[in-house]
């Protein structure tokens, strides 16, 4: 059967890259047969070696670039290739923004058959050192702890001293905590044998307040030499506000477990987006790029176009970030979120900002909102910001029944955005415009906000 393929394993051929995949691989076609080749950029001519062929597509390796893309740059990170956390460092930032714009347009068109205006991606002035949260898996090397990232396609941990998309202070905090835990004999979690203590170190830092939270995630109920470790962290980490212990004794890729306790300081740290203050606890979702979060929320608010009279629903509200932005301009906001701790934070956040026209409910958006509607409630504007898998069908159906005048869809996955927009368009909405916002420079992730109105 493989004889019918236009290329064979080990062939060395000349190609032209046409596209870039979500993983950041270049795509070239040989008689319509796609080859995926890491590190190739659209427009480049190259010699490649075919390393694997499947029925419908194959993989290759770059041998030589014959004609370079004008957007090709040298990746500044020394561990870029091994890490896999970033996929686009070899593409200039201008090239990244263009690629993300094209990706959103292509996916909306191909998956959703959506015909709308997609604006150029809103990017950062300085697209480095933006992340407020660092989360590193822990391993061991010659008796000491190492922490960094899993080597691509493996569970081998590689040590990392710095990460160029992380706020610099977070690198220092992670390294310091690693050293302190090593010094007091903490053993790394051994995934294969399900033994050892420390699985992950998580650090979150308020970009404006500078407050630091450290979360130690262990398999074991206790941390050896806990008191000495905590004392030394408090001594060495500037602006430390909260040290949290989370226990995860399951064999799982999920990072945090069910038990969370405060070892030192507060249960939350605070930060600001614009002039709204947020308390954030260990288990709550909080956007990782604070600078661009402001851009994203302002766009969502602009698209909601509120005049102070509306009833607004914020589905998938997390700690109430978008809800509180909306509440300043609306009559009433109703936020729904599945993580109970996030809703606790959301209620606290309403209080600390002296915002009283907002109510929060814990539960699945696709259950809570239909029930709320059945009880006779309606909304003029509905905002959704679902996780990657998009909105549940039951929620989309309730939107079509309730018919809010406007829907603002904040999405971290263009594919499910396209799918859901198609359902909403078939039910009577029109996608007026879409704004991609670059929340994750150097990576292929794309965030986009869509504005829909009832026609
Ligand atoms: N709008 C918030 C959170 C967006 S992330 C912000 O910008 O910060 C998506 C949120 O949806 C997460 O907080 C997640 O816990 C929540 N979530 C996931 N599935 C859900 C569901 N079925 N119903 C309600 N919330 C859900």
Automatic annotation (TrEMBL):
One of its GO terms (biological process) is rRNA base methylation. Gene3D superfamilies: 2.40.50.1070, Nucleic acid-binding proteins, Vaccinia Virus protein VP39. The active site is at residue 412. The keyword Hydrolase does not apply. One of its GO terms (molecular function) is rRNA (uridine-C5-)-methyltransferase activity. Residues 6-64 form the TRAM domain. It is an enzyme of class 2 (transferase). CDD domains: AdoMet_MTases. Keywords: 4Fe-4S, Iron, Iron-sulfur, Metal-binding, Methyltransferase, S-adenosyl-L-methionine, Transferase. Its EC number is 2.1.1.190. It holds the Pfam family tRNA_U5-meth_tr. S-adenosyl-L-methionine binds at residues 287, 316, 337, 385. Belongs to the class I-like SAM-binding methyltransferase superfamily. RNA M5U methyltransferase family. NCBIfam families: rumA. This is 23S rRNA (Uracil(1939)-C(5))-methyltransferase RlmD. The gene is rlmD.
């Amino acid at each position: 059967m493989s004889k019918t393929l236009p290329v064979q394993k080990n062939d060395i051929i000349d190609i032209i890259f046409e596209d870039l995949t979500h993983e950041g691989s270049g795509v070239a076609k040989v008689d319509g047969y796609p080859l995926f080749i890491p590190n190739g950029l659209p427009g480049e001519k190259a010699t490649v070696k075919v390393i694997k062929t499947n029925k419908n597509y194959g993989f290759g390796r770059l041998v030589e670039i014959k004609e370079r893309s004008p957007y090709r740059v040298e990746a500044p990170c020394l561990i870029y290739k091994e890490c896999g956390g970033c996929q686009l460092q070899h593409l200039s930032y201008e090239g990244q923004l263009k690629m993300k714009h094209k990706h959103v347009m292509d996916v909306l068109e191909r998956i959703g058959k959506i015909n709308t205006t997609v604006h150029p991606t809103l990017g950062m002035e300085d697209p480095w050192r933006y992340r407020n949260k660092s989360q590193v898996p822990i391993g061991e090397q010659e008796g000491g702890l190492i922490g960094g990232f899993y080597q691509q396609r493996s569970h081998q941990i590689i040590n990392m001293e710095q990460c160029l998309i992380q706020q610099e202070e977070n690198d220092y905090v992670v390294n310091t905590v690693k050293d302190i835990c090593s010094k007091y004999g903490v053993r790394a979690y051994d995934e294969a044998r399900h033994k050892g203590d420390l699985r992950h170190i998580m650090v979150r830092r308020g970009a404006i307040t500078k407050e630091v939270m450290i979360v130690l995630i262990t398999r074991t109920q206790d941390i050896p030499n806990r008191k000495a470790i905590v004392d030394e962290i408090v001594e060495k980490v500037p602006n430390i506000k909260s040290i949290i212990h989370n226990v995860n004794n399951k064999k799982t890729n999920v990072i945090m477990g069910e038990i969370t306790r405060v070892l030192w300081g507060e249960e939350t740290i605070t930060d600001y987006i614009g002039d709204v203050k947020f308390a954030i606890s260990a288990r709550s979702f909080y956007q990782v790029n604070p600078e661009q979060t402001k851009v994203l929320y302002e766009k969502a608010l602009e698209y909601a176009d509120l005049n102070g009279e509306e009833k607004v629903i914020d589905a998938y509200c997390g700690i109430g970030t978008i809800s509180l932005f909306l509440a300043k301009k609306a009559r009433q906001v109703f936020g729904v979120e599945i993580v109970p701790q996030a809703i606790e934070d959301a209620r606290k956040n309403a209080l600390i900002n002296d915002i009283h026209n907002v109510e929060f409910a814990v539960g699945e958006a696709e259950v809570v909102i239909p029930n709320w509607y059945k009880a006779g409630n309606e909304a003029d504007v509905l905002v959704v910001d679902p996780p990657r898998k998009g909105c549940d069908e039951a929620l989309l159906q309730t939107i079509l029944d309730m018919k809010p005048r406007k829907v603002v869809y904040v999405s971290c996955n263009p594919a499910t955005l396209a799918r859901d927009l198609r359902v909403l368009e078939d039910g009577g909405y029109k996608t007026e415009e879409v704004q991609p916002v670059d929340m994750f420079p150097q990576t292929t992730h794309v965030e986009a906000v869509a504005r829909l109105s009832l026609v």
